[in-house]
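Shapes recur. One chain:

:::
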Amino acid sequence: MNRTEFIIATAIILFAAFMLGWFASWLIHRLSRVTRAEMGELESMAQQLHEAEEGRDRAVDELETREADLVTKLSTAESELRAARDELRETHTEIEELRAYIDRKLGKKG
């Protein structure tokens, strides 16, 4: 094999390797590219995800508002309960004092 044949054989091998690499690149690009339908689907999924996140945020805000309202109502109810218990205690004491007074008055007359 002389020098010219070696250069031609090397050129053919390099060209074949280049063509094989180009074909592999084209094939990979062709198989992995995103189609318009897939892009539309991805955009639709992104929009749905965004809407779902907004809905979740609204639900969390509403939950926090309701929780704050319920805590306020609970505090109010506890205050009213304490006041009612104090009134009952005072009333019970007053009733006992009245009973003792009546018993003393009836005991002196009888």
In short: Helices lie at 3-32, 36-109. Residues 35 and 41 are 10 Å apart (CA to CA). The two ends are 150 Å apart (CA to CA).
